[in-house]
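Aim 2, interim progress: modelling of the pyridoxal-5'-phosphate-bound target.
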Amino acid sequence: MPALSKILSLRAVGQVRHYSAAAQSQLRDILGQQLSAIKEVGTFKAERIITSSQSTQITVQGSEKRILNFCANNYLGLANNPEIVAYSQQLLERYGAGLSSVRFICGTQDIHKQLEQKIAQFHGREDTILYASCFDANAGIFEAILTPEDAVFSDELNHASIIDGIRLCKAKKQRYKHRDLADLEQQLRSSDARLKLIATDGVFSMDGNIAPLARIIELAKKYNALVFVDECHATGFFGATGRGTEEYDQVMGEVDIINSTLGKALGGASGGYTTGPAELISFLRQKSRPYLFSNTLPPAVVGVGLKVMDMLLSSSELSQRVQSNTQRFRDAMTKAGFTIAGENHPICPVMLGDARLASNFADQMLTRGIYVIGFSYPVVPQGKARIRVQISAAHTEEEIDRAVQAFIEVGRGLKVIK
Ligand code: PLP
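Predicted structure of the complex, ligand included:
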């Protein structure tokens, strides 16, 4: 009997013993206990299975009904755009499924270079390096460019991937209080590091609030520091023409290093990048480990990025639409008596306070066909539970109004508003 079918037949009668059965059962016990504890405190994350494409209206497993989706980072509504899908299919056929290689061995096609150039053009930068994700871009940058002589100053609420990236580097690590310029200045003043790098999210995704970039740049100039910004929740749609937080705060071109994602507004497939000075990008191609040791982006994914960049370079209509939808939602909700945190960003946290209330509220919204998610501790601070609503350019005004109406009905029922 061939080896595989012998194993399969033994497994069928329960006779296969893994050589490390004892170790494996110990692992199952340890993890099982921790999983039970996670479930007990109510923070176990289950996946809702979507049976349609990502869109403002989706279907989910177990239901035929379309539900209105306010949870995705699909800010420009491009995740299922037919023109983008068709172009991506063309590149799949012409360039194949993938490259089976990292970039510098035999994984760079002309389309990778084209996408890097278009992203640099979009941001007005000298060059760009692509990664498989922005998580990788953040994991790869600090360790590559900073030495023990250097220091990195990081907002305490930065995204997990920035925190992990900084952990990997040997520079002195200094955390400053969230958006607290006095704390940042005090730390910059007392630093004698060779290179000083300030690292911040452009937009903080739990609160929808914005880094005070213009004032951070002033401090950077005063103390000869570099500025790094993660623009995952800004690129393509935030600021007058979607150039991100530096456009919103009127400091276009003044950030030294921008990292961002292709996995949210820019078509929602996957991929990340660093864009900035030519020497930095060239250096990252020599030293950045997620770039050197991970497979190149597949052609179909590159196709999504290329088509989205063409669209955004020729028109800012979509970013204007997400902005007007955001304004419509925030105005109506505030008028109804809800507290919406953050600034005028499509991340609209509806503040509720109590964790159980937030989860009950989200469940009741779903029964009205509106998909929103409640966030509670430890994702947000204790007592600051909320429902995070994310607005897209693809939502119609009627869909926004339906969501507001459902919020009002549920809010009244739960005595959150009068
Ligand atoms: N940075 C921020 C602020 C994010 O919100 C995310 C995604 O959640 C990432 C980085 C990681 O991006 P990607 O999904 O491309 O790895």
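Residues 133-135, 138, 159, 161, 201, 205, 230, 232-233, 261, 263, 272 surround pyridoxal-5'-phosphate (CB under 6 Å). The longest strand covers residues 347-353.
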